[in-house]
Design a protein that fits this description.
Blueprint (H helix, E strand, L loop, with lengths): L1 H19 L8 H6 L14 H6 L9 H6 L10 H14 L3 H15 L18
């Protein structure tokens, strides 16, 4: 009985590790045609401020080069999920970095029940006393 429990625990651990490190696994090309989610050519992780600046994730109003790279900031970089969303908006809607950030911000506000001016959309919200 203990043998089967240990094999089950090992299999569960193997599956968890496989899931955790799935981005680093080599995937055969034939699987790209079968399952489109295996395709990674649309996104490459940008883990440092320098990589993000080189990918166009900077502007005069959001200058990560002057504020982070030249000052020697040791942090990893911008949020990966937010970076991916902004890059997707830039690609899909053919807008620049600042416009894509604004579009993402308006979507975030709308998802949380806030209009673009910053006022809550909930009729029961108290906005003044």
């Amino acid at each position: 009985m203990l043998f089967y429990v240990s094999i089950l625990a090992f299999a569960a651990l193997f599956l968890l590790l496989l899931y955790r490190y799935r981005a680093h696994l080599p995937i055969p090309e034939r699987l790209h045609a079968i399952v489109p989610s295996f395709s990674r050519e649309n996104y490459a992780p940008l883990s440092t401020f320098a990589d993000q600046a080189a990918a166009g994730m900077t502007s005069s109003t959001f200058d990560i080069e002057a504020d982070n790279i030249f000052l020697g900031d040791s942090r990893a970089g911008l949020d990966e999920q937010g970076t991916q969303e902004v890059m997707e908006i830039m690609r899909r809607e053919n807008v620049n970095f600042d416009q894509a950030r604004l579009i993402r911000h308006h979507r975030y506000l709308a998802a949380n029940g806030i209009d673009p001016s910053g006022m809550p959309l909930n009729a029961k919200a108290v906005t003044r006393l």
